[in-house]
UniProtKB/TrEMBL annotation:
It holds the Pfam family S4. This is Tyrosine--tRNA ligase. ATP binds at K259. It is found in: Cytoplasm. Residues 1-21 are annotated as: Disordered. It catalyses: tRNA(Tyr) + L-tyrosine + ATP = L-tyrosyl-tRNA(Tyr) + AMP + diphosphate + H(+). GO terms for molecular function: ATP binding; RNA binding; tyrosine-tRNA ligase activity. Catalyzes the attachment of tyrosine to tRNA(Tyr) in a two-step reaction: tyrosine is first activated by ATP to form Tyr-AMP and then transferred to the acceptor end of tRNA(Tyr). The gene is tyrS. Residues 366-408 form the RNA-binding S4 domain. It comes from the Bacteria. Belongs to the class-I aminoacyl-tRNA synthetase family. TyrS type 2 subfamily. The keyword Protein biosynthesis applies. A motif ('KMSKS' region) lies at residues 256-260. It comes from Serpentinimonas raichei.
Amino acid sequence: MIQATPPTAAAPRTGATPAAPRAAPLSEAVQHALAVTRRGCEELIPEADWVQKLQRSQASGQPLRIKLGLDPTAPDIHFGHTVVLNKLRQLQDLGHTVIFLIGDFTSLIGDPSGRNSTRPPLTPEQIQANAQTYYQQASLVLDPAKTEIRYNSEWSLALGAMGMIELAAKYTVARMMERNDFHQRYTAGSPISVHEFLYPLMQGYDSVALKADLELGGTDQKFNLLMGRHLQAEYGQEPQCILTMPLLEGLDGVEKMSKSKGNYIGIGEAANTMYAKVLSISDELMWRWFTLLSFQSEAQIAALRAEVAAGRNPKDAKVQLALELTTRFHSAAAAAAAQQDFINRSQGGVPDQIPELALGGAPLGLAALLKAAGLAPSSSEANRLIDGAGVRVDGTVVSDKGLRLGPGCYVLQVGKRKFARVTLS
């Protein structure tokens, strides 16, 4: 770490407390790196230690080791996962070493974070299948050429029974029970399996094995991230800093993005769907998404926000965001095509690619036809959509629930996004 030599001062009077030397001013490079680190983050713990690490890295030219661990508990990644991936990419662009850690071993235990019951562990086959897509999808955000990919089974399996016992001796049950989800479950009389105590220990040991300088995670991972600091100190290493990122609100703007809640955008979704979903978020949520998902600078976002406050249509800003995100996960050409597709649909046009199917039984009632085409889950729901003027046949709104369609080819539309071309015979 670079420190300025304090100027020579006169000896203090007897009994006076000498003034502490002033810390060296931060270089522009360190100030910039600190600003990049802070952007959108919830907590940086401890910030003073991170500043020292940045200063040491600048002075030595040695990149810092920055770790993100993800358990492959599902086959796909959504926008919520990319909040920490984006931060990882920003730090990667500063020249630091990024370690994308796939928790194939810890997935066997199951992360208890936020759980109110014991989580069933995944099978090795499920983990292997999910892990195959994780890094491929993460590479849409990270620079693959500058990313170190690791699996924590490398060192976790090698620990063996003796090593696991020695690791468990480095943390107390009392401290473990300070964790919110464990405390709440214990108070409520809900079961806590002993193996769940191993999860934070193993995640913390990952930081020891990788000699991490910084670990990233969501706010729900704070306990596990702090465990890494504790265990590194136990093993004689310099403790890592931790950076927590907020959980991204989903399309509804209320609940965190989650597949189970249906308020997500998968990074593998079609460009047209991705673009349209981004445009569907509220104007208020848009700015939070800009901060957490966009690669535009904070100055650029602030300027755009000022333009909207001065009267510019907020949809213009939302279009920018939709184009940027769709381009990142597809291409500029695909994003432009998705934009045109959205315009066509908003003007009553039909997308270029829609599901096509052939059905028999003409004449067929409209509600039954919508159900058969997969545009409504049931005939009763189809009738509700018809009553709400949400159904079009060949571009014309249909309000007659008794309508029966004879042989022919029809374009059915429900809402703004659901289409099907049906050939009825």
